[in-house]
């Protein structure tokens, strides 16, 4: 739900991408190394299939996952700890080098997606539970799948990683008040409790992972490659739990939820790209902006929805987790093909 296999893979990708110029007018990226490209495509392909299978299992045998809901925050914490283990000073140095581009990405992310969530909930006349769930997805930070997909799209990976990192760090300060502002008309929102939950399940595990990486980084090299798949498996379990808890409601609301998710994600991708191009950041940065805006930390959204609203409110996040990886991979393939054709 946080996206495709997370940060450990992102750093493998970026290690092959060090020749990229950091300025906003950087030319299109040269062809990516075949090994990293194949690994990226495999990760982005396998992950949605794994999550889809987990959702089907939760729908077919909901009793298997009954009673697992209290474990969702701990599962999300595991994912975020894995993310922290793969972070280095590079993730933060990019913010210092390009503050304007990163700031624009953050503003676009936390304005476009929450606003779209609210508009779509109103336009489709969603029930209070589903409306709150869609809005909460929009208020979540960026997902690390965006980094991998940006790479596949031949976009600005450094900018993508910087925006994703800072949006995650700022989530405790931004996500709860945005949710209160936009979803408060549908359901009561305890923003203070939500801040505490995000600190415990997102920020503290990430910081813990960073500290462990700093203290024992040389011992982690052999296991970094396993972290994306550990995260993917954990995300799949969260999806199964969320879907199982709403199995009865899915049969009547699945079509409407899918429509809301497709609109939310698709418009987010388009408007994110438009924001980057309007700011004249360059084509690679525009592609990065598309994915940083349109792809969300749906794992966090599902966890918060389950804890603060209801299992039904977590359903949009579960569907978003599957869909945004499929759409992201397709859009990235199209962008990459267009880039290669332009290079002749």
UniProtKB/TrEMBL annotation:
One of its GO terms (cellular component) is membrane. It is a multi-pass membrane protein. Residues 8-23 have a biased composition (Basic and acidic residues). The chain crosses the membrane at residues 46-65, 71-88, 100-124, 130-150, 157-178, 198-216, 223-247, 253-276. InterPro entries: BilAc:Na_symport/Acr3, Bilac:Na_transpt, Na+/solute_symporter_sf. Gene3D superfamilies: 1.20.1530.20. It comes from the Bacteria. Residues 1-37 are annotated as: Disordered. Keywords: Membrane, Transmembrane, Transmembrane helix. It is found in: Membrane. The keyword Transmembrane helix applies. PANTHER family: P3 PROTEIN-RELATED, SODIUM-BILE ACID COTRANSPORTER. This is Membrane transport protein. The lineage of its organism: Bacteria, Bacillati, Actinomycetota, Actinomycetes, Kitasatosporales.
